[in-house]
Amino acid sequence: MPAGLTLTLDEAMLDALAQKVAAILESRALGVATAELPRYLTVNEAADYLRCSRQRVYDLCSQRSLRRLKDGSRVLLDRAEIDAYLAREALALTPR
Q: CB–CB of 69/76 below 8 Å?
């Protein structure tokens, strides 16, 4: 019998994993390959991704919850950093 892999996740990690899988499935349902998603998002794109206002994105940057990258006059945010922020928030909201 082949050896199996056992992975134990707490509820918060499982929830973060489920959110990531849901995002991948959603992007595939929309016909967009995950590899084709841009790494950096504008403030408008980040607000759409987070489903919040542009002002909330600027507030998160001011609070240093998210780092902003400047490209001339454009403000860009790293999608992976936004995902990490969401995972941290999900962990913080999980009752212990």
A: yes
